[in-house]
Write a structure and sequence with these properties.
With 416 residues, this protein is α/β, with parallel strands linked by helices. The protein has two domains: 203 residues, Enolpyruvate transferase domain (UDP-n-acetylglucosamine1-carboxyvinyl-transferase, Chain); 206 residues, UDP-n-acetylglucosamine1-carboxyvinyl-transferase, Chain. Helix content is 31%, strand content 26%. It contains 14 helices and 24 strands. Strands 22-23-1-24 form a four-stranded mixed β-sheet. It is globular, with a radius of gyration of 21 Å. The protein binds ligand EPZ. The site of ligand EPZ has 27 residues, from helix 1, helix 5, helix 6 and helix 12.
Length: 416
């Protein structure tokens, strides 16, 4: 158990280089399994979800190692088409190997993936798509087995713009015979990153970043280097930390659209954003404006991965705010923890009703998921007194050096 000990009331000031995107790095590592050449991923975040993906790709027979924030993967050899349960249980990203291994090896056996317990998180869209591409899908007590000697391109109509299902179909389609069209594809920027890297490997993909993606041609063996985009959720998390604790923070990023879906809300809350070509500067307001209603939505809407962090900030807003979580059915874990700090929040179904209080008070808090953990750190930075955030290992699944980063910005936080 890791404990983050925070003394509230210290504003954040200074510059921060935002880590590489967790949700881009994971599919890019799965894509590297498809490349029989050498893939170098630069700007990868140093987080445990990435380490978990590297453990899996080594288990599958590839050589893979890290040099600071670069990952080098040699995909020339592979000698397994099964992934043991303990390797898939910790992170949802492991699911992305299903499409890649099925496409390259013609068979994949693995348990149902783990990840944050923010809902049931089924994988039916993924498996239905593989079946439509010609795979035989067998459900066993210990997981799933998919087999298909040669996947066939076809049209996949996703019932919901699922990020993981869109990525898994793309990973399968670049080795399929014939073109694949994905209708109602997710549009998160991390998917465009995956497409761009696959195009560097020779794939021909139309509609990158749109709801209709057509994979027309597959990949070839190549040695490539790719730089991972900045993590837009990490950037948004630091922006909300500055809003809650007060301050003026400059986030260095390598994509201009990093704050899409987050910036509009920042302005409505009274947070000033100043954009440069490789940074976004966050200047906190004198108070936090409440938000009468906000709903989490697929990209480019307000991201569900920022919902908990928003709740922490709005718990000190100047009125009543309402959040509706429309993506996951169990993503209000932090409500009970914020109530320990004196917040005034009640939930009814998918909605949370937040009456802002003048200030929160420090408390001992339990982390139950990745983004919720970051949200509790934000609350501690703003609270009166000492907050101890007890984390069984969720936060460093997705955030690189969060305590060091916040401390270097002036926050009074350390790992005990
Ligand atoms: C990805 O998860 C992200 N994870 C999540 O980030 C993110 O919250 C989510 O997309 C939504 O943006 C990674 O990229 C590794 P989905 P994913 O498939 O792919 C339902 C974080 O904190 N669904 O878009 O699992 C599902 O239950 C994590 O970084 C099905 O019903 O999300 C959910 O209600 C948390 N059947 C909705 O779709 C399926 O087969 C969206 O899920 C697949 C999904």
């Amino acid at each position: 158990m890791q404990s983050y000990v925070i003394e509230g009331g210290y504003p954040l000031k200074g510059e921060l280089v935002v880590q590489g995107s967790k949700n881009a790095a994971l599919p890019l590592i799965a894509a590297a399994f498809l490349n029989e050449g050498i893939t170098v991923l630069n700007g990868c975040p140093d987080i445990s979800d990435v380490d978990n993906m590297l453990e899996i790709i080594r288990h599958l027979g590839c050589k893979a190692y890290k040099e600071k924030n670069s990952i080098i993967i040699n995909g020339s050899l592979t000698d397994r088409d099964e992934i043991p349960a303990d390797m898939v249980k910790s992170a949802r990203g492991s699911m992305l190997f299903m499409g890649a291994v099925l496409a390259r090896c013609g068979c994949i056996s693995m348990d149902y993936p783990g990840g944050c317990m923010i809902g049931e998180r089924p994988v039916n869209y993924h498996l239905d798509a593989f079946e439509k591409m010609g795979a035989d899908v067998a459900y066993k007590s210990e997981g799933i087995k998919c087999t298909c000697a040669q996947l066939k391109g076809c049209t996949i109509n996703l019932p919901f713009p699922s990020v993981g299902a869109t990525e898994n179909v793309i990973l399968a389609a670049v080795k399929a015979k014939g073109a694949t069209t994905i209708i109602n594809a997710a549009m998160e920027p991390e998917i465009a990153e995956l497409c761009r890297m696959l195009c560097m490997l020779g794939a021909e993909i139309e509609g990158i970043g749109s709801k209709i993606i057509i994979i027309k041609k597959g990949i070839k063996k190549r040695d490539i280097q790719y730089t991972v985009m900045s993590d837009r959720i990490a950037a948004g998390t630091y922006a909300y930390a500055a809003a809650a604790a007060g301050g003026d923070v400059c986030c260095i990023v390598n994509r201009e659209d990093v704050m899409t879906g987050i910036s509009v809300l920042c302005k409505r809350m009274g947070i000033k954003l100043v954009y440069g070509n490789d940074y976004v500067r966050i200047i906190s307001g004198k108070k936090i404006n409440s938000i009468p209603y906000i709903k989490t939505e697929p990209y480019p809407g307000f991201p569900t991965d920022m919902q908990s962090q928003l709740m922490s900030v709005l718990s000190m807003g100047d009125g009543i705010s309402v959040i509706e979580e429309s993506i996951f059915e169990k993503r209000y874990h932090i409500v009970g923890e914020l109530l320990k700090m004196g917040a005034d929040i009640r939930t009814k179904g998918s909605k949370a009703y937040i009456r802002g209080v003048r200030s929160l008070k420090g408390a001992v808090l339990d982390v139950k998921d990745l983004r919720g953990g970051a949200a509790l750190i934000i609350a501690g930075l703003a609270a009166d007194g000492t907050t101890t955030v007890l984390d069984p290992g969720y936060i460093n699944r997705g955030y690189e050096r969060i305590a060091d980063n916040l401390s270097e910005l002036g926050g009074n936080i350390h790992l005990a």
